[in-house]
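ENTRY TYPE: paired fold submission
RECORD: A
CONTENT: sequence, then structure tokens
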Amino acid sequence: MLKRALSCTLYVLVAACLVAAKPNLGGFRPQQICQAALASLQGSALKNIDFYRSRQQQMEFRLSQSGQTHSYVCQLDGERVLWRRAQDSRWQLNPELRFHFNASAKQLFIGHYLGQAKLAEYSYRVGDF
């Protein structure tokens, strides 16, 4: 009876660990993926996008460019990057930003999509951050 109870407890612990496991992001941190997505979206250098703070799953960034500062909120949802301006309440859907990576080359790709049509793709390496 004790052996069966321990076995059930072990299964519950393993299942909890699997649910709590973080997704494989190819060696990139969520902040880096959002930073790259926002930089590609704004046509800006990575160094101009600063991570400001995180609130649960949402990350806040500031873009400093041409003497102006703009704030953005970003969140990862599967292979999509959700984004919006900080002052807006709705996520922007056009263009849709998706990411994937080549783990062996340590390369991150950010794609801009309109429906299924790929509008552009940008690539970043771990050393770019």
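RECORD: B
CONTENT: sequence, then structure tokens
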Amino acid sequence: MTLRAAATLALASLAPPAPALAEGARLDLACTYLKSCDQAGACSGFSGPVTLSLAPVTIDPSGTGDWRFSPEGATALPARGLSHTGPWTWQPGDGHLHTFVLTGEDSALWIRQWLPTERYPETYAEIDILTCEISG
């Protein structure tokens, strides 16, 4: 079984992969936005592609540990993951907290929270609903 096939199987079942596949299980995702919603649940149609890479740095066999998150080929940001399907969390700065989680074999949620700062005095969030497939 190839690493790509193993990653696809793991995502399909939403179960952690076998320990032998845990280290080095980089995920390259080709996603499409379906909707964008606010924290109150009001959604609008939003479409467009986005590519994402999640690369393990130091993880245990279940995928818990340090990862690197790269949206659209940008500089990788340090992230913390709880499993091979997420959630992954990171803070790109300016009071933002991001969470990304695979929710099925071809779906994901990306949550962006703005925490209280001088620039953004009130907390609010945006939730993007995406379809994704493993690429590369």
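NOTES ON RECORD B: The first strand starts at residue 27 and ends at 38. Residues 3-13 form the longest helix (11 residues).
STATUS: closed
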